[in-house]
Amino acid sequence: MSGPAAAPAVVVLVGAGPRATGLLERVAANAPELWPSDRPLEFHLVDPHPPGAGRVWRRAQSPLLRMNSMAEDVTLFTDESSVIEGPVRPGPSLAAWAAATAGAEPYAPHEPAPDASVRAELAGLAPDAFPTRRAQSAYLDWAYRHTLAALPPHISVHTHATTATAVHGPADGTQFVHLAGGTAPLAADLVFLTQGHLGSEPAVEHQELARFAARHGRRYVPPAFSADVADELDAIAPGEHVVLRGLGLAFVDLVVMLTEGRGGRYREESDGSLTYLPSGREPVVHAGSRRGVPYHSKTGYRLLGPRPDLPRYFGPAQADRLLAEGRPLDLRRDLWPLMAKEIGYGHYHELFHAHPERTAGGWEEFRAAYDTLHWYAPAMAELVRTAVQDPADRLDFEALDRPLRGRVFADAESFQEHMRGYVEADRARRADPGYSADLGAFLALLSVYGQLPQYLPDAAASGGAPRGLDHASVREHLDGWWQGFFSFLASGPPGFRLRQLHALSRAGVVRFLGADLRVEADEETGAFRASSPTVPGRTVIATALVEAYLPSPSLSRSEDRLLRDLYAAGGAIEESGRLAVAPDGHVLDPALGGPHPRRIALGHHTGGRAVAAFARPGTNAPAFRQNDAVARDLLRSLAARPAPVRPPAPARPTAVPEQPRGAAPPAGAGRRAEPARTAEPVKPYRHVPR
């Protein structure tokens, strides 16, 4: 006669987007080795948005919004490049999945039937296409269900379509996660905070602008996720002059919603140009930023030469050497010369191999000299000048970073002509394989980005002596200059978006303001005044201002009540606005003087922000390495503990008093939790070697 069944170990994941799916996928892969087959393990996913897609990639957003990655460059699965301790379990990229499931129902049975446009897009999705975000939502939904089907029968997953509002419990005991709606808290052995990208309530300067707009009957939209501000955009009247401050991806999304989203359309002309046909419902958009130019478009081709051997100058060996010095590092002084040299290597590797007719001498000779030189050494500049004849083929970071620096235009129209030429030249270059060296630089940028987490102060700590980047350099250089520069070069829109922007400029719907944009709230006129030194003496008067960029991370102002209250109660440390974590993801708890053994956080809202939830295939993605290590630690630590005895749930801890913030509550707050549910099993994907 068998004894009573063992009580299940319980893990709560707060946030059910792609980061949670990636962690569960690694649990499924490692469980046969590390989890006893006679002991149940329960996962509870808490998120008001659909599991798999989460908030950012949820299906309920405009069908006009697209990804800025090609379909073949998006995967949630490990592959032969993954250097991990656990087993590699290949799966399809978004492109491969769409091709393998063409015509099939893309969403889970519990989701409403998708409209015909999603099915049609997936059926005809080319590998080099930039999918809609709703197509990505379908892929993430499938990847989530595929992952559940791969779990052994004694590991279960339950979802709670609500918001987690608090977590508490002793460091050496059960954790309790409270849910909105008054349902009983979830008792857990471990809690994972996987919320991902989070909004922040308006900062002081944004609150002041909102009050100004309210006083004068104007419209102001603070930094927010594009899919969340549709109602605010609808309030902007046709023909109204609106300033969009920011020229990155959020700007592109907002312009799409204010133009095509209002019935405008594009017409291909016989000469190959594109014409925008207004609906008459568009506002007049004035756009500017610090740089004054849009993000560079994504390349529309593949490498023509072999992949560069990366990392070469900015990898683990260089990190070991710099961190061994035991001094605070400055990104611009200590890291950037190595980072720049690495990016340059990717650029020139492709130029020499794919376009040798535009170089002098051989690659081996160039590389031997390049290896020995500092990036800023005069000899390096001379080497490049001698080997690369055309200045357009040389990598000039300073010119790339601030293309309008020192440029002054006599009037607004001459500047509009210049910007139309700039936008078209950028689009054309990134569609021309003759400039595939740009893609070599892009791949090196990705490599550099993946190496940076090891320099973070907490990640570099050893024996209680902090090493790595100085906190000021993290704030000013890593999260400031570098993140902006990286996004400008590597995270721009698809090329067709710049083509559309060119057409919108010609139609007068979008008008460029210039660099170092200044916007003032004029109490006398009750309007916003925008100006730029790029066109001296020009001032634009607008009745609406939209911040065209994402909110800055902040624990104290986070929309996420759990994180905000945890920080206010002294249970977390803020690091450049993010949740401070140890190298293995455990939350740093000031009361404990170190990592909390039962709370782990992964994703963009943490100090390990450089680790994205999904990645390009074949890149040994940091996210997959992190997910594998964390999943194995999770399984080992829980398997080593005796079956839990659950104490009764204590009362919810006293909440930190709410302060008036003038912002809407988080999406989904106050909704009653739906019954726990387990997704229907799906047929596992069969990997076909590429």
TrEMBL record:
Residues 12-197 form the FAD-dependent urate hydroxylase HpyO/Asp monooxygenase CreE-like FAD/NAD(P)-binding domain. InterPro entries: HpyO/CreE_NAD-binding, L-asp_N-monooxygenase_NS-form. Residues 652-670 have a biased composition (Low complexity). Residues 640-690 are annotated as: Disordered. It comes from the Bacteria. This is FAD/NAD(P)-binding protein.
